[in-house]
Specification:
By secondary structure, this protein is an alpha+beta fold. The chain has 6 helices and 5 strands, in the order αββααααβββα. A 5-stranded antiparallel sheet has the order 2-1-5-4-3. A hairpin with a 2-residue loop joins strand 1 and strand 2.
Length: 176
């Protein structure tokens, strides 16, 4: 009888050791996976930061994320820009865009995906942008992702393209 108790306790202790070893292996695997996930997340944020043009994530009119380009073009540090509400950046001549964001919070409202607006830089300079607005969720709450294209840069590029087309046309006419 005493021998059976020892065998039972030995097999019980052996089962605990095996289960403990198995759990340690699972923990090690989860730590590796968590490390890989953190690396992927860091790479994803790096990609988002490298998006050409300003990129904002706005929730309840407050800026919760702004990429490096947004900070650089508007002249703010990341800390300064995150302390602002998005309407604070809008030029006074752009109230329709603010109203559209406010209205967009209510369910069922359709927002145009492209808008034009102007923002005021820290220096007071007015910058004109085409804004692409996408509704999204951030931390379980509705938010807006604003991808901005500087219209001054786009107009300059279009002007350069028109000029190159004119030059090619003149060269073609002169040569033939």
């Amino acid at each position: 009888m005493g021998n059976d108790g020892r065998n039972t306790s030995k097999s019980w202790g052996q089962r605990l050791r095996e289960e403990n070893r198995s759990l340690r292996e699972k923990i090690a695997q989860l730590k590796r996976e968590a490390g890989l996930s953190q690396k992927e997340l860091k790479n994803t944020w790096k990609l988002i930061d490298d998006v050409p043009g300003p990129l904002f994530l706005v929730q309840q009119e407050k800026i919760v994320f702004a990429n490096e380009n947004a900070c650089r073009e508007l002249g703010y540090t990341p800390k300064e820009i995150l302390a602002k509400a998005f309407p604070d950046l809008l030029h006074p001549d752009s109230p329709s865009f603010t109203n559209m964001i406010r209205q967009g919070r209510s369910p069922g409202q359709v927002m145009r995906d492209r808008n034009e607006t102007s923002l005021t830089a820290k220096s007071g300079q007015t910058l004109f942008y085409e804004v692409r607005v996408n509704k999204t969720r951030y931390q379980g709450k509705p938010a807006f992702l604003l991808n901005m294209l500087n219209l001054d840069q786009r107009k300059t590029q279009e002007k350069q393209l028109r000029q190159s087309v004119k030059t090619e046309t003149l060269v073609g006419m002169a040569s033939g």
